[in-house]
Amino acid sequence: MRHSATPYLYLLPAFVVYAAFMLYPLVRAGQFSLFDWPGFGPSTFVGFGNYIDLLSDDRFLASISHALILILFYSILPLVIGLVLAAVLRRGSVRGLGFFRVMIFMPQVIALVVVAVAWRQIYSPNGTLNDLLGAIGLGGLARGWLGDPILALPAVGVIGFWLETGLVMLLLLAGMGRISNQLFEAARLDGAGPVREFFAITLPSVRGEITTALVLTIIAALKTFDLVYLTTSGGPGTSTTVPSYEVYNRAFNLKEVGSASAVAIVLTIMVFLINIAVSRIGEERRTPR
Amino acid sequence: MTLRPFNRRFFMAGTAGLAGAAVLSGCAPGSTPTDQPSAPAPSDIATDPASMGDLELVVWDQEVRGSQNDSLVALNKAFQDKYPNITIKRLSQGTDDLKAQVTLALSGNDVPDVVQVNNARGDMGQFVKAGQLVDLSPYATAYKWEERFSPSVLSKVRYSADSTTFGEGNLYGLPQTGEIVGIFYSTKKLESIGGKEPETWDDYFSLLDKAMAAGEQPMVLGNIEKWPALHVYGPLQGYFVAADEVVKLGMGNAGASWTDEPNTAAMDKFQEWGEKKYLGTSPNGLDYDPAWTEFTKGTGVFLPGGSWLGTDMEATMKDDLHFMAPPPSKEGKLATTGGTGIPFSVPAKAKNIDAAAAYIDFITNDDAMQIIADNGGMPVLRTKELAPASGVQKEIFEAFDDVSNNGTLLPYLDYATPSFSDTAGQGLQEVLGAQKTGAEVLKAFEDDYTKFTGA
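YS: structure for the whole thing
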């Protein structure tokens, strides 16, 4: 005998877990963000005061702009490079395809702490990068990369680029694997070269994968914390601080849990909005007019 | 394969629900204000652990590094041997981990009996304000701690009950070890530039010029972590600014200013060091530990830093390594950043407060100081007497004894306000990297300080 509630009962266990570990903390964070509270002891209700303070908070605004810049390194560049790499690997004339795939995907597998420690070594004033520059006669460019007010953020971005490219490439390769070879044959018979093939067949076929890759990497860029925490602690000054680092710093160092929660909520909304935009654009392109 | 993490309708409903739920759930986070726990009267307290019955004493500490861990292990064993009725349950973790955990734990009911809490306003000050630590004053009377410790050491664990004043009032913990920030140098390097140990700050400044001219890096600093620069700036400030003013600024008590002439002079000098690359080409891009490692391998002449670096650097540099307290200040007195290791405190909700106080007494008494020294630590008391016969440790012990008894141990600047560690770390990085001028950074310091003291 079927009851109209039956399907919902099947969903219930999963929903309970989801609600307990996702929805409840989110609601609590939203609630905390309306209070002035050091994390213990009494709290004061301040309404949207924490949010209003954020509007004139230079550190917070800087962190948002840094996160947006990181999207370039985490999403856009990996997508461009990943597309080219995947297209080249897809054409199949590369020997040792599996080896290259593994190498490019490797950064995703390594624990982020290890990645950060290794890159700190590379960027250090006496590190590998400066040695390399010296060896090719560009010693004048050597510097402490993570300590340079202008270059520290790109330096962190490059680590993100190195991390995300493998993921993006793998997604795109999977998509390209599904394209029928007949399409390429037809195009070649029509006289299309590799470049034409890429724009006429490969690119349109992997739109879905591109959207997925963008959504995943943009989320990674916006909520990046570990890399910044482990490499620069947001420094020098505030040059590399990002919203997630601000959440941590406010909650645990400054003991401003209300403000930290407000930053977290703003960040969550930002992630949602940007990804709505990305998915919308991706979907529109897919529906034939 | 497409990922659709959400659709718009769900998202809108979600946010509306979120806001609604937050407004509707009227209960505020945190507890309602409680009355300050009143300290037990001296007559109520028990001071003989042997008569306290069988109990388990929970101790949370951050003494995880070599000699610190060895000393505490030895002290715990000695305590349990003496009082077999008390079992110590020790939980040891890194400084930052403990700090994060204590913040969460102290507001709950399951608290340790003894815990290490940093003196700073952002830590101990906040907990005192929330009524989460026991005022140990009655125990200080019973155990005669005021005879054991100098007033300057005890001042760093004293707060008024509402935590507005730091440095006077109730007693909230006791430290075991001493710390002093001074100047390490390599004799070989110093001789190679034709210098000897500086006796005045002017000597020091001219030695830095000399080192630079000779193609040596004058000072070594790894400041990616932001706080190391405080240990360069502290002693420098101690030269230009009167000690009692630094104490006020450093403890976040009203009546001083970051933007007066002496403070400006100190910051100007610091800015000059940054511009002239006296601290290396990129101190902000170098990690703290690699920096001193490079110093041991022959980079730089001086390394301004804390006593805790002595043991590790001596292992490589042997008798080439020396330590000195910074030369006397403009007032003609010894003054440098320093103080004590992180003090041991008792949470207000601890189950065995008497036993906890007895334990703290035990690990800070004269015999304990001996055990700490035997295990390679620098005891906060009897320092000169317990100094090793030779080597850099002897110089460090003597410098600490000298400054703590004849001069002033200036507070770490991050004690000042709950946010000062952030403000100072950020500001000093910005001056070193020429992102901001010294004047701009001092203004930021002053804003943080006046916002706190004025509130």
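YS: worth flagging: Chain B touches chain A through 62 residues (CB under 8 Å).
IM: good catch. Also Confidence is low (pLDDT under 50) at residues 1-26 of chain B.
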